[in-house]
Task: structure prediction
Amino acid sequence: MSVIEATAQISTATEPRLRWRSFLSHRSGLIGASMLIVAILAAVFAPWIAPYDPYAPVVGLTPDDIFQAPSPQHLLGTDDGGKDVLSSLIYGARVSLLVGFTAAAIAILIGALIGLVAGYQRGWFGSLLMRITDIFLVIPDLALMIVLVAILGPSLRTIIIVIGILGWTGTARLVRAQTLSVRERKYVMRAKAVGAGDMHVLRKHILPAVLPLMLANMVLVVSLAILDESSLAFLGLGDPTVISWGQMLNFAFDRGAISAGAWWALLSPGFAIVWVVLGTTLLGTALEDAVNPRLKRHHLESPGSDVARVGTVAPPPPVAAGLEEPILRVRDLAIEFDSDGGPLRAVDGVSFDLRRGETLGLVGESGCGKTTTVLGIMRLLPPGGRIVEGSVWFDGDDLVGLDGPTLRSFRWTRLSLVFQGAMNALNPVRSVGDQISEAIRLHAPSTSKQQAARRAGELLDRVGIPARRAREYPHTYSGGMRQRAMIALALACDPDVIVADEPTTALDVMIQAQILELLGGIARDFGMGIILVTHDLGVVAQVCDRVVVMYGGVVAEENDAATLYREPQHPYTQQLLQSFPDVAHPDRPLRGIPGSPPRLGAMPPGCRFAPRCPHAFDRCNAERPPEYEAAGGRASCFLLDPTEARP
Amino acid sequence: MNAKLLSVESLVKEFPGQRSFADWVARRPVRPVRAVDDISFELGSGEVVALVGESGCGKTTTGNLLMGLLKPSRGRVVLDGEEVGAMSGRDLLRLRRRVQMVFQDPYESLNPRMRVGDIVAEPLRVHKVAKGAELRSRVEAALVSAGLAPVEAYLRRYPFELSGGQRQRVVIAAGLALEPTLLIADEPVSMLDVSIRADILNLLAGLARDRGIGVVMITHDLSTVAAYADRIAVMYLGRIVEYGPTRDVLANPRHPYAQALLSVVPIPDPSVRRRPVILGGETPDPSRIPSGCRFHPRCPVAFDRCPTVDPALVNVGPGHEAACLLLEEGMTSADPVLS
Result:
């Protein structure tokens, strides 16, 4: 549950929409935009800034005027007709940009219309449109353009139309994909259930979701159109009555610029084309990132270390004589996640012990840090997350201080994990038996293939899957069987501790009962310690010996299960129990807790529960409560402070 | 208060089955998938009825049939004396104003680009029932009814600025804007945090009690409906196997499936020691419904007649029915067989 939710909290909106702040922080995007603006300004103000008028007839042309090298009079020299190259370049921007923008507008319009219809209207008509799109996609654009322009005659209008009607395929595919995904969204279904017609759904729900993508796409289509126009003009298929950059290149090539060594006549228009195309590409890429921040993945690019703890930590003092030393001792664990607004502390000073053969419930609501805590213990934090304080003592070793290889030998042989979504955690292209054998052989390389396969069969048998199904692939398993297979996988190397993260969430109650019975049996038979991460107080009551209740990244209360349910000490535990439905007492009124759990970025300064707590007083809002011993366990609440004279 | 609002009569919904290439070669007939198989129940104004069952039991299909989103293969859904399945066009649009749905996932069922005010106003705009000042006042009234007050704090917010519970309240407010007579809530709290669930359930129950709205709650979780439903229908493979007042069904379940289902619902009290009846295997594929009693392959008390006779619902108490041959045999209780 919670890592995904934690990251979702960091970047709240995952829908494509334009995030201006994200765009403005994109340096290359700003550079691209500036480059494009320079070109546009040049085009708009050409008559004022160009030193000469390239359309005016040249009077009194002398041979000296042709291919004149750059000079103070002609900053970029002259061309074969004795005209000022700089002026032609500035005027050329008008044609190139005009063609680029209008052709792109046509392409986007056609592409959007076809994409919308094909995506929304899933019937035969939609498929037909997509097949047409596919055909257009494989036609070599430039060749067809050359043919069409040659047939229709090279006028500016023809060129714009031809580029426009051949450039829509990319947009159509993009718009269709987005439309398809939006039309399946629950809010569209809800609008339809209310009685909304197609036009309403398209206008209010689909178009707003598609437009930002189209905007980003538009910029890229513009650069393609400019390139197309230049190519056509260079090949002599441009409108001969106007000056464009392609046209300038064409004339320079045809009329001896190379033999005259007039590099300025060639390089200048080439540079202009590169300038605009580079500008639009930079801008387009930045817009795409701003529309869809997941493309950027800046957290993944610099994974860094998952540990940022300074120095070493002394192990906790041994437990009282006569008691068994716990296999796992978590001390003051603190974990932070990177976010755009600085590090966010998801887990802040969590401590607890786990003994062999004990089942510990780690309970809390979404965002309380329970999953992050166990991922930290396993040293499997997602990129951007790191342990900043505390230690995890496993049978005398501090897991936080271990290096990669040592850690890998620890994982699975001593400490293994059952994930929440079993389908995502099993490899879909390998048989279940293979995956279990692989885990066995990875950690005990001396095991033969046959031995590993036999052991995999035994393990599957233990979790209630017939051994013959070891050869099958995960997709042939039902949800409950996949979770059983995950448990078999976790058992593969006979670990001391299994961490089960919401192992029964999303399963039916009967399957949940089967899985819980299985886990209970394993804990009993193998004498393993189990940490069960869940939000379900009923499940915890049923299978756990001890319970750690987490809230807002800290431990609110810990006690043995029987006492915790009978005499909850922390107001949060008390209220949580009152809000939890009990099928055995249907007449008991349920009371929700007002407010909602705190967000990662906005933790209350004092006690994390204070804003929702009915007993909160001044001190709760100012100070963080330490852990007090109470009812044989511990709870962090000032009400338990003996010096507080409160009821 | 108890005027008959909704009656479901022998409702059947079949979907055309998938025909594989092997089926085609072997000329096997296509097996239709019978998602809902002859179910009947009634709902009065202000009542809450819960359809409870595991995945594949047909509860969601039933919800879609009630909404008129699917046409029944046989049987009828009658709302306020009008048959839902026979409606089309304008009538169906009118039906949409009276039946509203609350979906499971409040994160997905709100358009992230729309403000709360527009989301709640959307149904009113679609049906063109109000505009201007009246639209605004109806939107505000709906938000208040859903517990989102003061309305000024919510009208201009976007969904991502709200918590899960607040989002589900927005969904409910949008459902209430058209002042429906029937609300269908499909797993309304399963995606919400535990501490929030009770409030949403209290809200739905309050709407039924105070405004006479009928509520059909669809869920897999018996414990969430225990305190809220007037009646419970336990479904298994498209059929209602037990139906009755909540208190009776929970205190004295008569069908072996209902007994097993109840026995595995986790109870938040470690001191309660129960003997859970954990059924083996999983619910069969609805395209291969077992012969006779559809529950017999998993039933702990099945006997020789079960694979051949399909039991009908029989009366086991006032308004309490169950479909099991053991009950037809005239046995007073199925409990002794189980223990």
